[in-house]
Amino acid sequence: MVCIGMDDTRPGKGHNEEADKDKIIRGIREVQHALLNTPSGSHNLIIYSDIRVLRMMYPDYIMSLLDNNEIVLFLTYYDHPSTLKQILLNGQNKRANLIDIERYIQNGSLVIVDSLKSHFNSESHHQIINNGDKLNFLSLIRILLNHGIKSSRNGITIFSDMGSFFHRDPFHDHNHSNNSIDILDKIMEYERSIPTRYKELELKKFCVYHQNDYELHFKSTRQKAQLLDWHDRSIMVMDGAKKNDNDI
Fold first, then answer.
1. Label partner for 125 (CA 20 to 30 A): which of 27, 51, 95, 173?
2. Could you say which of 1.10.3470, 3.40.50, 3.60.20, 3.30.450 is the CATH number of the domain covering 2-167+177-242?
């Protein structure tokens, strides 16, 4: 497990701005190192305290996967798919350019979809992928797996922002009594639906949680421990000021 306290990486009173920036960069580099050392076929957990920190964590890693002839599926929630594409273009090392990103999208190496539409479209239960086609989520996974086999890819990595599980249908959900147990069941069902291996192709999964969702819906130490147990590895970039465990 990699655990970075945001109290050590965010600006504070009396701190030099350049020194604060250096602390943030050093923290992000620790996370990036952990990402680069994530083994194939693993099921991983990322908890982040600030969307700006998350945006700094993954661009270089995703580009390294694409450069390594892998497929990347990103189910985004707090960032629009178009925003995520721009974030990749603005990675810290400026490795990506628009031509590269568009090429990866066109050849099926990079697939970015709206997580909410992917899982909880109340009308069709379909998702819209890059070219506008609608596909069931598991059907998309099968298509990517078959595409990966036929095109001799080295693997598939899935980033799934889990925010959609906590905020779906806010105006149409009449059952406002949904509790953490219901959410745990839905998340477990989702995570079990994705294989870790298909023929000779391995899948690497990252389940991404905003700390506010994590703290609000996994309220007890037992529930948090259960979430950790579901995953092989955990990367936690946490703001200690937000923590509010209610032990059972």
1. 51
2. 3.40.50
